Q: What sequence folds into this?
């Protein structure tokens, strides 16, 4: 058996080699992220985290999020060492409040992994019924082409899709918006959305991704998650194109949108 | 009879407990398994990220079906014992189960985030968090 090479003249040479040993890749799968693999890159990001600023700004696309997810996903950094590092950055008087949010988000990963361990069959199957007034068969099995090509009639959604496809990363809030758009606006099965995310996210993880999709869909939560344009504008400006004229399908009050998206009424 | 380490995609760091003493492996390997990555939905971006991560790790990379390749390597090195990282991933778990019919497979757990035993019927985050919170703010999760 032949050993694969571990030195390359440059990144392009490495990419060609990856292609050569990956015959299953679609010929048109051509994006590579600027995010580089390896422990050194992960530690470099870890040294830059600011868990206190994170607590204040994490919901904004431009907030002080860590970008650690692909490194944590593949065990390049352990959750334990990330937490230990964050504790060192907390207030010296032992007050945990300012770093609580960051550590709680790390705990979400631990939680999803524990759920995965206990119930591997939940990763691709509805854990509970939809609470959207619809049955699973009311949802399409496949992702519409205008979604996979970022040609929907909502500019902000297209921006999220393109970001996902080119960088392999999306901010948590953008993941929620895009997942909700796919499942509730386009009435597509969460599984099809989850598959699309897994194919592009560098951190794509069966548990964190699919169970979050089920949380959005309401098959693993008490109600469906949806949003309106006003909320999206608050957290996504100026990164995403948020003008109402370019995002009409997302505009309206929560009551109006609930009536449009869930005409049969939401159950619990 | 020798031991070797099978490093898989869920544990890609040299500080994973897998590599700690008493591990004294003759060999550490990563199997580049195209069909596995396809089943996991991994596109080019992810595969490049993974390959870049492997460059600095103390492993040899072999391309092929994971189970077949590991069996061949075990035969070639006359190994009786494989150390690998424990994972909830059932695809990897099945490979470990299949290897166990002829080899001793040791599944080494990663450092825990919180030192909390498994809870029954986990469904909602706050049931976990109510128990985990106190430990989550201690170095090493209260270990
Ligand atoms: C629809 C949807 C799909 C998602 N898919 C994935 C996925 O495939 N892989 C993945 O790691 N996360 C996933 N998440 C969770 C979360 O969005 C990402 O972990 C986070 O955005 C990664 O960016 P970051 O590293 O800058 O995170 P930060 O906000 O800086 O958080 C630090 C770390 O905590 C963990 N984390 C934070 N939030 C969550 C969360 N809600 N659930 C689980 N772990 C969390 C991650 O490991 C992250 O790297 C998903 C969320 C949604 C709503």
A:
């Amino acid at each position: 058996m032949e050993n694969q090479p571990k030195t390359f003249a440059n990144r392009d040479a490495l990419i060609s080699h990856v292609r050569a040993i990956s015959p299953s890749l679609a010929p048109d799968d051509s994006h590579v992220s600027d995010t580089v693999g390896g422990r050194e890159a992960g530690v470099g990001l870890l040294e830059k985290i600011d868990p206190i600023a994170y607590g204040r700004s994490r919901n904004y696309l431009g907030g002080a999020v860590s970008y650690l997810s692909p490194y944590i996903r593949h065990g390049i950094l352990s959750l334990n060492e990330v937490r230990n590092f964050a504790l060192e950055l907390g207030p010296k008087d032992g007050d945990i409040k300012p770093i609580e949010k960051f550590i709680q988000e790390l705990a979400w990963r631990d939680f999803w992994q524990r759920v995965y361990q206990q119930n591997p069959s939940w990763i691709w199957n509805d854990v509970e019924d939809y609470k959207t007034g619809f049955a699973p068969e009311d949802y399409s099995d496949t992702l519409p082409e205008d979604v996979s090509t970022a040609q929907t009639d909502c500019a902000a959604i297209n921006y999220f899709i393109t970001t996902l496809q080119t960088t392999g990363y999306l901010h948590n809030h953008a993941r929620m918006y895009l997942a909700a758009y796919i499942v509730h606006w386009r009435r597509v099965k969460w599984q099809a959305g989850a598959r699309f995310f897994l194919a592009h996210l560098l951190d794509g993880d069966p548990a964190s991704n699919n169970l979050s999709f089920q949380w959005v869909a309401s098959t693993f939560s008490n109600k469906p998650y949806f949003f309106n344009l006003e909320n999206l504008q608050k957290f996504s400006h100026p990164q995403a194109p948020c003008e109402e004229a370019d995002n009409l399908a997302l505009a309206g009050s929560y009551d109006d949108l609930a009536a449009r998206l869930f005409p049969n009424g939401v159950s619990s | 009879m020798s031991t070797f380490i099978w490093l898989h995609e869920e544990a890609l760091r040299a500080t994973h407990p897998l590599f700690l003493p008493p591990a004294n492996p003759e060999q550490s390997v990563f199997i580049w398994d195209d069909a596995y990555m396809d089943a996991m939905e991994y596109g080019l971006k992810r595969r490049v990220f993974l390959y870049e991560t492997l460059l600095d790790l103390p492993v040899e990379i072999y391309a092929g079906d994971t189970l077949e390749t590991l069996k061949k390597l075990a035969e070639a090195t006359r190994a009786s014992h494989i150390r690998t990282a424990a994972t909830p991933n059932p695809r990897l778990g099945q490979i470990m189960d299949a290897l166990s019919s002829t080899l001793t497979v040791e599944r080494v757990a990663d450092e825990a985030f919180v030192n909390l035993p498994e809870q029954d019927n986990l469904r909602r985050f706050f049931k976990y968090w109510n128990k985990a919170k106190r430990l989550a703010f201690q170095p090493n999760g209260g270990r």
